[in-house]
Write a structure and sequence with these properties.
The chain is α+β, with helices and mostly antiparallel strands. It is built from 5 helices and 10 strands, in the order βαβββαββαββααββ. The two termini are 12 Å apart.
């Protein structure tokens, strides 16, 4: 039922971390889940490291570059993230909320809706009270217009089917943007960071033709700063 995602990437100053996380996990996330149509909230801390050399990233300085944390909200549809949501009254943020939200540095926001999904072999290990899985990989990017048909075919014919067989994979969602810089996104769920690191990086080597196709295609994409992010879950709230 969670066909839409609101995703926020941002950094935090170390001096603000403990106070902010206590407020986010204990106050803000439970309040968001009470909104009409919002089903869950999940917060992740990103693993830091350089992205693969073959990936291109935007040089547009107007695109915020925060990447330390990712906050995701899942909803019935994208209209749940309108302000105010259907059936809700507009509420001005409190002084505390304004103060805490101002601690986010370089925040970048996208609202996505589902294009397609596939379950992985570990789908049975999905946690019903946790929103999303313990480890995610999240890509956000744009694709030159003439190559979008190829991108569609690549996900349909190769990437999603291959994830349905990858050990450690719970599932994958190809998503497209309703609002935000990135037009395309992809969200992978894994049972753990260790399983992701063990199975995902070299999974295409057994099929050289598809590995070559992947290499040609991904070099055409223009990613958001830091994309793709690999991250560990640190909090989750479910309606």
């Amino acid at each position: 039922m969670d066909r839409a995602l609101r995703i926020s990437w941002y950094d935090l100053a170390y001096s603000n971390r403990d106070a902010y996380l206590s407020w986010l996990h204990g106050t803000y996330m439970p309040a968001q889940v009470k909104r009409p149509g919002v089903l869950w909230a999940a917060h992740y801390e990103c693993e830091q490291g350089p992205p693969p050399d073959r990936l291109r990233h935007t040089d547009d300085k107007s695109v915020p570059a925060g990447n330390g944390y990712i906050l995701l909200l899942g909803a019935n549809d994208a209209h749940a993230f309108s302000d105010p949501a259907p059936g809700a009254l507009r509420a001005e943020p409190s002084a505390e909320e304004k103060k805490m939200l101002a601690m986010r540095v370089g925040e970048r926001v996208n609202i996505f809706t589902d294009e397609a999904q596939a379950d992985g072999p570990e789908a049975k290990r999905r946690e019903p009270r946790a929103g999303l899985s313990p480890c995610i990989q999240l890509g956000s990017f744009n694709c030159p217009g003439p190559d979008e048909n190829e991108l569609l075919a690549w996900y349909a014919r190769w990437r999603l089917p291959s994830m349905s067989k990858l050990p450690g994979c719970i599932g994958v969602r190809k998503i497209v943007s309703v609002a935000g810089w990135a037009k395309h996104g992809v969200l992978y769920e894994f049972v753990s960071l260790e399983e992701r690191n063990k199975h995902f990086p070299g999974h295409e080597k057994a099929n050289p033709a598809m590995e070559a196709w992947t290499d040609r295609l991904v070099r055409k994409l223009i990613h958001a700063p830091g994309s793709p992010n690999v991250a560990r879950r640190i909090a989750s709230v479910v309606k």
